[in-house]
Design a protein that fits this description.
The chain has 134 residues and is an alpha+beta fold. It has helices at residues 10-18, 77-89; strands at 22-23, 26-27, 29-31, 48-58, 63-73, 91-96, 99-113, 121-131. It has 2 helices and 8 strands; from the N terminus they run αβββββαβββ. The strands form 2 sheets. Strands 3-4-5-8-7-6 form a 6-stranded mixed β-sheet.
C-alpha cells in the first residue's frame, strides 16, 4: 500500500468545463494536444481551446497547478472567447467528472499574442487551479 497522495487531473477537469460549451455564440472545442494535419496546420472547427500545464506548487494538503489556455479563432473572436471562458471557469468548489476543484482563479489575464497565420489569431491566459487529494 502506498501513502502517495493522488490529486485530480486539473487539465482534464478544465477540459470538462470547456469542451462543447457555448461562448459568445459559438461552440468551443477543447484539446490537450493541438489537432493538426500532416503538415502541422491546425485543424478546426474553430474556435479551439488548447489546455496545457505550466508547473505549479504543492502545499501541505493542497496543490496549485498552473494551467495555460490558448484559444485559436478568426480575428477578435480568439480574445472574446477566452474572456468568456475565463468568466465561466473561475470560481470555487467546482465539481467535474475528472475531479473536484477547490478554486480556479486567473493568474495572467487573457490577451492577444503573436501567431503566424493569415486566418487565425491566438489569445492566451494562465490560471491557478487548486485541488486536494482524492
Amino acid at each position: 500500500m502506498s501513502d502517495a497522495l493522488v490529486f485530480p487531473d486539473t487539465k482534464s477537469a478544465l477540459f470538462d468545463l470547456i469542451d462543447g460549451t457555448m461562448h459568445i455564440g459559438v461552440v468551443v472545442h477543447a484539446f490537450t494536444w493541438l489537432p493538426a494535419d500532416d503538415y502541422g496546420i491546425l485543424k478546426g472547427p474553430f474556435p479551439i481551446a488548447h489546455i496545457y500545464g505550466s508547473g505549479g506548487n504543492r502545499g501541505f494538503v493542497d496543490r496549485v497547478d498552473r494551467r495555460t489556455i490558448e484559444v485559436y479563432a478568426p480575428g477578435q473572436q480568439a480574445l472574446e472567447v477566452l474572456e468568456s471562458i475565463t468568466a465561466a471557469i473561475c470560481g470555487e468548489n467546482i465539481d467535474t467528472p475528472s475531479g473536484f476543484l477547490d478554486k480556479v482563479e486567473s493568474d495572467i489575464v487573457p490577451d492577444d499574442v503573436p501567431y503566424q497565420s493569415d486566418t487565425l489569431n491566438k489569445a492566451v491566459a494562465t490560471f491557478l487551479v487548486t485541488s486536494r487529494p482524492i
